[in-house]
Request: fold
Amino acid sequence: MRNVWKHVRALLAGRIRYRITRGGVLFTLTIIVVGLAAIISANNLLFLIVATMMATLLVSGLVSRLCLAGLELDFQVPEHVAARHIAPGRLFVRNQKWLMPSFSVRVEGIQDPQSPVLKTGVYLPLIPAGATLEAPVEVRFPRRGTYRQNSFAFSTSFPFGFLEKSARVTLGRETIVYPSIQPRPGFEDLFLGVAGEIETHYRGLGKDFYRIRPYENFESARHVDWKASAHIGSLQVREFAREQEQTVEVFLDRDVAPVFDAWFEHAIDCCAFLCWRLAARGTAIHFRAPGFLFRLPLDGDIYTILKYLALVYPQRGGVLEKPLDEISYKIVFTPSPNRFLDAGWTGARMLGPGVLAIPAPDAAAESV
Reply:
């Protein structure tokens, strides 16, 4: 019974819908007034006028129906699309009718959580018979994940504007949308802090000069810069950068209770933002999650990490994994930092609900 009801709802959603415009209401009232006048006065001329007006209304409905018949739609977006980001797309409208063109057709997105949102609709004044028209659009996907059904609607009020007809079109194209990589409140400050901690973490005594800094107790005297010390008046040390590549190990904890589902979505956005910015700086990333390991750039590009973040979901249980090495800088997204500290993640940057708080709705809306 439930399947039958879903099928009926789908048919109702896909049928042609009608909406009487203001001009149609006025025209209908005029028909009624003239018809009453014809009945009262028994004037044959008024009857002819009423008949002509009714025929005009019927012809209007028939022509508008023919304008929507035989239209085919295709929708294309770039290969890499992030949520809550306006991306360029293209609409292709084909008129499959052999002889009759379509006039004054508008294409709009359906207001549905499962569908992308068009910034503006597309108006096509004329679609010749057998022709395909292409139009650029700006599209915005409200959330990450897989979009398997993209719904749009054709509408027209041709020829007289008395009646607007719309026909819904659902495309079966699958689109994977990455998490948003735009900075939300606090993300930029967090990234700057992490970038500074990475530089501090990888200070060392290698071959590449890093900076001159004050001498600290128990350091070797062979690294003292005597010329700088004499100039400043206190002992200064020449510091060199470490020789190994800067590597950041990022771990996403999927063992999240249902009460933290909203925080998990916020953490995924933050994780995507940090990975995107770190990759842009040329930093090597070891991205990890329970049962998943990806080394950037050794195993591929940043889009593999973003695709994983687009499809990941919380999963309770599992064995807590240890760090890959002790040298790399570590970031952990988890609602339970103590579990990771006990498992050997000492010194890692823990980003939990207390540090990575969900912004207020107003602040989040301003950042989008």
